Amino acid sequence: MATASPDASLTSDESFVATSHRGLTYPFGRRTPQPGEAMTIAPGLGWARIALPGSLGHINIWLIDDADAAGGGVALVDTGMDLPACRESWAALDAGAMAGRRLTRVIGTHLHPDHIGLAGWLCRTHDVALWMTRGEWLTARMLTADQRDETPEEMVAFWRGAGWDDDQIAHAKARGWRQFGTVVTPLPLGYVRMRDGDVLDLGGRAWRVVVGSGHSPEHACLLNEVDGVLIAGDQVLPRISSNVSLSVTEPEGDPLGDWLASLAKLRELPGDLLVCPAHGEPFTGLHARLDALRDEHLARLDELYAYLDTPRRAIDCFGALFSRTIDQSVIGLATGETLAHLRRLEVEGRARRRTDNGVWSYERA
Ligand SMILES: [Zn+2]
């Protein structure tokens, strides 16, 4: 199914040039929504941006024409975090593209704060329900409810398991436990559950829920087959790859296995969809991107396997996996990603894990 052609108002824009990125095409070129603006990129679908601090710089949110018992409005997908920069973006939208329009529902693709950080606030302000999958909803509620100040011993044991030294642990503890609740407004007590395969009727258009896992427990993408559009959240990003980490929450899990299975599942969708990612620009070339993401992980697994000729701790493997230097600011993310790869090798039967004095080491099986 062909994707919708870009909004006619864009064609006068000088930068309206499709650029290719490793087999990907960006139908809207360098044109991105300005503060307060929503670009119409498919029938009934608006693209807006919420500013984020840090290297990401923004999250894309999606405004879908919708109607409920109270009349016409907008179904919102993802929200931004509870930070001043995001609230400013919302003030601009309320004065711009959202002026005189009401929300009918808030849909969260997954639990990460840039996606649902303002969901509670928006649901209360507009008196509408939050729609999520159960895995994302429960995890988000659990994390926001965890208000303790002290870093739990289980967390410290996990870091020790990965090979962190006392300095690294002291540094991480000093940063404080659980920043999650500080950037997420209180969530409503109840929600509307979305299941894999559910079809949402949004303003007379059918959007099917396609669930993936590995980046988060039960991530919802939304597929409109008639117009050829996939709202992909963080499940497929065009320029960066999504973080896939083993965490203290589920240390015997296999998030990279889940992730690779999800990439294969999405690979069965049509190749000519307009993919609307949470970060970066809408693109076509879904299959090329999924293949590239899969190949990247498989190559890293092979390199890691080769490196396990002698027992290695997670922190010993950073150099084999990452080209950048891993300093204290990113050691948590790097550790989670490394453990996800090591755990995958273990599940595949290619590596064996040993525990000595609470420290895990991995060796070729
Ligand atoms: Zn995410």
Give the oligomeric state of the chains in this entry, treating copies of one chain as homo and distinct chains as hetero.
single chain
Please give the largest β-sheet: 7 strands, mixed
Cα shape? globular
Mean pLDDT: 91
Write out the distinct hetero groups bound to the structure.
Answer: zinc ion
Low-confidence runs: 1-19
- First-to-last CA distance: 46 Å
Helix content percent band = 25-40%
In total, the number of strands is 16
Strand content: 15-25%
CATH superfamily: Ribonuclease Z/Hydroxyacylglutathione hydrolase-like
Strand and helix map with partners:
Layout: E1 19-21, E2 24-26, E3 39-42, E4 45-51, E5 58-68, E6 71-77, H1 84-95, E7 103-107, H2 113-116, H3 119-126, E8 130-133, H4 134-145, H5 153-162, H6 166-174, E9 192-194, E10 199-202, E11 205-212, E12 219-224, E13 229-233, H7 255-266, E14 274-277, H8 286-307, H9 318-321, H10 331-347, E15 351-356, E16 359-364
Parallel strand pairs: 6-7, 7-8, 8-9, 13-14
Antiparallel strand pairs: 1-2, 3-4, 4-5, 5-6, 10-11, 11-12, 12-13, 15-16
Helix pairs in contact: 7-8, 8-10
Bound molecules: zinc ion.
